[in-house]
Amino acid sequence: MLQVKVGPGGVRGKVDQGLDLELIIDLTCAFATWLDRGPVLVARDTRPSSAMLAHAVFSALEAAGCDALDAGICPTAVAQHAAGRVGAAGAVSITASHNSADWNGLKLFGPGGGVLTSAEGREVLDLWHQGSYRRAAHDRLGAVRDIEDVMEHYVAFLLERFDRD
Fold first, then answer.
1. Where are the alpha helices (DSSP H) in 64-117?
2. pTM summary value
3. What is the pLDDT of residues 79-95, one digit of tens each?
4. Structural contact between residues 34 and 103, judged by C-beta atoms closer than 8 angstroms
5. What pLDDT is stored for residue 1 in this prediction?
6. CA-CA distance, 151 to 75, in Å (whole number)?
7. How confident is the model over 14-20, as a mean pLDDT?
8. CA–CA separation, 128 vs 131, rounded Å?
9. Is 118 among the catalytic positions?
């Protein structure tokens, strides 16, 4: 039995029961097509399948001509903060939140790490259903680069907002 849930904010499902690389690549390509050009921050959790899904996301972003910023393993809130801090055009968090380890998924965020509105999410899903994605020429492919110290910046951000005395 396939167990995949696709919605305006992304997708989640069981990796061996419908959440496959083709779905991840196509949804990421639709998302990249929807975004304005600019870097896309990518973060993941510690699930066994997260690194595999990250490689698919990176490949899809590169194919669409988007640069990817690899934030590595970090919580979704940290990824959103980092996307805002670096001015990313969007962000992808690879996680299935509270679900068990056999689940995984993508959470999609707009410019600066903002939550997609329902209308924006539907636009991404419409592009996914149409299957018409932006493809970069061989000399205009995106690139992946690491972004470091995301946790440190997030902790500093939080500490600035509290009276520690």
1. 76-86
2. 0.93
3. 999 999 999 999 999 99
4. no
5. 59
6. 9
7. 90
8. 5
9. no
